[in-house]
Amino acid sequence: MAEELLTLRERLLFQATCSICLELFTEPVLTACGHSFCGQCLAGVLGDPPRRSPCPQCRAPVEPGSLRPIRSLGDVAKVVRSLDEVESGPRCPQHGKPLALFCERCAALVCAFCRDGPEHRQHRVRPAEEAARELEEYQCRVLERQSLLDSVIAEIQEKRDQPAVEFLKVRQHHPWAL
């Protein structure tokens, strides 16, 4: 079980780490080529004022206006931070017990006594590791949908630009026709 959690933690850490700063994401954004970076890190690459630049991972062109925020990836990074605190042994300041549970409504780690107390009694509380697993699965689904949306957008843009391309071809081959 401990090995499985370590592997899960490593996978989450990999998914939630910016390849520019090598830290957990803060306000992550997704490029059109499908790579994720901290918003501030990518802003540094795009310059001031932002300009078209190569993706730091694959060198594909990155247009400043095409970046999309990925809140779910930011949530995964928060969970990884929370898991790091659990592994390093943070204790509940009120009860001194390990903060090994995750309160979904408050998006916070709580101890067993807090879970049963009036503040969290009516909330859904579960093991932090379980919440991290579910967030990872959610992140994968979001990235798959994002990829599908990007494909549809690219197809629509191609169809939108097709008449102009055809017009330019006709104009180039038959300048007298216009």
Number of DSSP helical runs: 5
Average predicted local confidence, pLDDT: 86
Reading the helices and strands in chain order gives: HEEHEEEHEEHEH
The helix content, as a percent range, equals: 40-55%
**Which CATH architecture is right?**
2-Layer Sandwich
What is the CATH class designation?
Answer: Alpha Beta
Please outline the helices and strands:
Layout: H1 2-15, E1 28-30, E2 36-38, H2 39-46, E3 53-54, E4 61-62, E5 68-69, H3 71-87, E6 101-103, E7 108-110, H4 112-116, E8 125-127, H5 128-173
Antiparallel strand pairs: 1-2, 1-5, 3-4, 6-7, 6-8
Helix pairs in contact: 1-3, 1-5, 3-5
Q: In words, what does this structure look like?
A:
GO terms for molecular function: zinc ion binding. It is a single chain. The protein is mainly alpha-helical and 178 residues long. Helix content is 51%, strand content 12%. The chain has helices spanning 2-15, 39-46, 71-87, 112-116, 128-173; strands spanning 28-30, 36-38, 53-54, 61-62, 68-69, 101-103, 108-110, 125-127. It is elongated. The termini are far apart.
